[in-house]
Every structure is written in C-alpha cells, then in structure tokens.
Amino acid sequence: MIYKNFLNNDIMNTLKITLKQHTPLIHFQHDQEGATLRASEVKPKLDKFILTNLEVGNYKNKKELVPKNWLIGKGEKESHALNYRMKIVAEGKNEEYFITSFFSLKQKEQLNNLPDDVKTLLTTPYFAQEKEKNRILKRKNNWNDWTDGNGPSKKGLLCPKSIRIDIYSIIEDDSFMKLLAEKVQAFFLSQNFGTRQSKGFGCFEVVNILLKINEKEIGIPLLDKEMLLKEMFDFVYKKKLDSKDLGLIFNQISQDYQLLKSGRRKPYAKSKLMLYGLNQLKVRWEKRFIKKCVNNVYATEEEGKYYKLKSTHETPFTTDEKYIYLRSMLGLAQQFEFLLENPPQEDQKNKMIVKLGAISSEIERYRSPLLFKVYDENIYIVGNSVSSELLHQGFKLYVSIQEDQEWEHEEVEKRVIYTPTRFDLVAFMQFAMEDKTNSAKLDYDTIKGGKNK
Asked: Which residue of 83, 360, 400, 403 pairs with 344 in a disulfide if CB–CB is 3.0 to 4.6 A?
C-alpha cells in the first residue's frame, strides 16, 4: 500500500496508545539504537485479532465482512491487512539483559566481577544462548565487544519508561478507528512479542488510549484485565509473588512450565502431563516408547556391542502398554537426550539424541498453547484448546550419537508414534492445578477454568 500524502491528509484520524513494558523483549535487532516493538510484528497480529474477533464468519473469509476501504489493495490484490499506518517509539533508553536458562554456582560467582551495567536473567525458559555463557564471563570491555566474529550476543530489551504507538487512518468511516480503540487493550493482553513469547517475554500492557476523530479527542476508558482475560481464554490461572524481581519471576515460570510438561529434577517431581496421561487417559507418554526403540540398537565400534542407555528406575516395559506423543500437546519438543552407559569417548557423558519428525509436511512447528503473562508481581497462565491440526499426527524417530558421526539423524525404521486423537487442555490444567504428587503443587489461584483449591 502506498500512502500518498498520508500524514498531510485533512481527514486523517489518529489513535494514540501508551504501553507499559513488563518483561524484556528478546529482539533480533537488539543492538540498534532505540530498538523496541516492531510495527512489522505488531500490525499483522493486530489486523488478524481485529478480523478474527468480528462477530460472524471465519478468519479466512473475514475480509468479505468489512467495507472495502478498510482493507489494503483492490480486487485480486486485496489482502487481510487493514488500511492504517503504525508508528512505535520508546521513550528513554532501554535496559539491556543477558538471558540464559542456567548458570552454575561457580559461574554465578564469576558474575560478581562484572560492571553494574550488565543485567542478567540466569534461570529462564530461554535456551538459545548456552554457547554465549562464556562470553559474559570473559568479557573485558563493553557489552557490544563480545563478538568473537559473530556479532554481539542477543539481548533482552526493556523500556523502563512508556512506549507510544501512533496509528493513523485516512478512512472516513469513524467506526473503523473506534473499533481499533475498543479492541487494542484486549489485543495486548492476548499477545506477547519477540522471541520465546509464550514463556512471558515481551509482555506489554495498554495504560492509556486517546482517540482523535475529526479533531475531537476522546479518552477511551480501560477495562479490568482479568475480566478481559476471562473473555478471551478458556482458562486463566494466577500466581501472586512477593517481588517484582524479573530474575525470580522467570525462575518461577521456568519451574512451573517444567513441572507441567517434563517434570523437575531439583526438587524431584513427576510431570503433571505424564501423570494426567497415566491417571486420566490410561496411556503412557513418548519417553518410554523412545527408550524402548533405541536402547541396545545402535552399534559401537566394538564388534557385537551396542550403545546402551544409562539405567533408570522406571518399571519394566510390558507388551500391552499404549504410548502416545503426549508432550506435543504443550508444544513440539525439539529433541530428547539420554545419557549413555557406554559413551563413545572414555570419561565422557556423551548422549544419544532423538528427534521426532512429523510425517505430515504441514506440521513443522507448534508453539505451546499455554501463554504466560506477567503484570508486576503477578504471573498468569492462560490458554485455549489445542489445535485440531496437531491431533492424531504421526511422528518418526531420528537418532544421533554425540562423538560418533556414523549415527547422525539415523531414522528408526518402522517406528512411528502418534499424537492423541483428542485432548482436553482445560481438563488437563484443572488436573495439574489440583495434583499434589511428590508434594509438588503449582499454587495458582483459579480465575477461570476449574475449581479453586
């Protein structure tokens, strides 16, 4: 769309939105001056949110329900993009964070020697910067000097002051901008932004809305956050902490998500998802199936010997057990790792790595249906149903062994595991909030979705 004389048009209406940022935005342009929310990410999401929430029809056909001048393009080139321009500006300088998933006690001691301008979030559900840990520990100059020829490590950005979004429209129909003004608070409650957004990063809140129609300014009253969350999601759970410290908040999110999906090591607790499968669905999850398929199958260099998984305390396999790829219901896992009893390198803890690949080319990535929202010292878990596209899908197994290139992405022949044919995410979340196995409780208050314990 070419906006000819857009900003000089006498009939232009404007919507001014003020945001408060609650958690760092993991930004791919983090090293640029004034980097903040990108209009190229926000606008398509807002357009889809507006069209999806029209009262009738489905999203793909929504453009048939709105006036033609609301949409960019004409005829066959008409798109789902709404006809307005957006500008986003952060007030003041960003705080910068180095974000990783785990630091050892020794590494944390080394952090005490770093300058005050380096902020760190050390225990979070963000795993993409494990190789960059040593950069922050060995750093000698300023933040942007840890390049190693690869550019600075990715940062999280948080604007401590306000962020302003200005929306300009030349559509003469006043109802268009009024609709945007009505929906924008709910939109930001329903979304996070940037990388790892489902785990609480990139959380923003609308704190002021000012609509200007034909030179007349109209203040738009804000609605109650929890009321809007209840309207948009099938379940809403809330945990109130005693601190606004981001390190504590993301450590809590990381622990809670682990307890829901995979279980915890310290303190030990079984996965709520695994327990739900055993107790409610009468099935076992994929981990036992995978171990059964790959243990003592792949040969070592020694004749007649095979890589053996390190022993566990799990009960023996039986022939009548039913297995499903259950963990997929909370997001497709990138890979499963198992320590070897006889690693290829002596005195090493080399691993067998198993990846699950969808048979259908349409199922490549599936984000967790759980969304963590952070508002000051409050953590919310919200969500809706699991996508039907992920149900009853087959996945093949592919094996790699560290330090042994002979076995790299090797397909496990004739081994396929399927996702469930049905899965009630609301029922699972209620089970998870009530379950106390291993004395492990999530301790969230129920706002919507089940009994409040």
From this structure: 403
84 neighbors 69 (Cβ within 8 angstroms): no
Q: Are strands 204-213 and 216-219 parallel, antiparallel or unpaired?
A: antiparallel
Distance CA 12, CA 212 (A): 9
CB count in 10 Å sphere of residue 232: 15
Question: Residue 307: which residues within 8 A CB-CB, separation 6 or more?
Answer: 296, 297, 298, 299, 300, 340, 342, 352, 401, 407
Report pLDDT digits (tens) over 247-284: 899 999 999 999 999 998 888 999 999 999 999 999 99
Count of other CB atoms within 10 angstroms of residue 102: 12
pLDDT digits (tens, 9 = 90+) for 377-397: 999 999 999 988 899 999 999
Phi/psi zone of residue 282: left (φ > 0), alpha (ψ -120 to 50 degrees), beta?
Answer: left
Question: What does the block give as tokens for 210?
Answer: 């000012």
Which of left, alpha, beta for 75 (phi over 0: left; psi -120 to 50: alpha)?
left
What is d(CA 29, CA 36) in angstroms, rounded to the nearest whole number?
A: 9
Query: Does the structure show a pLDDT above 70 at 161?
Result: yes
CB 133 within 8 A of CB 122: no
Region of poorest pLDDT, from 75-79, 141-145, 154-158, 334-338: 141-145
The pLDDT of residue 453 is 41
**Cis omega before residue 267 (within 30°)?**
yes
What is the per-residue pLDDT for 27?
Answer: 72
CA dist 338 and 408 (Å) reads: 15
Top-confidence residue, 2 or 259: 259
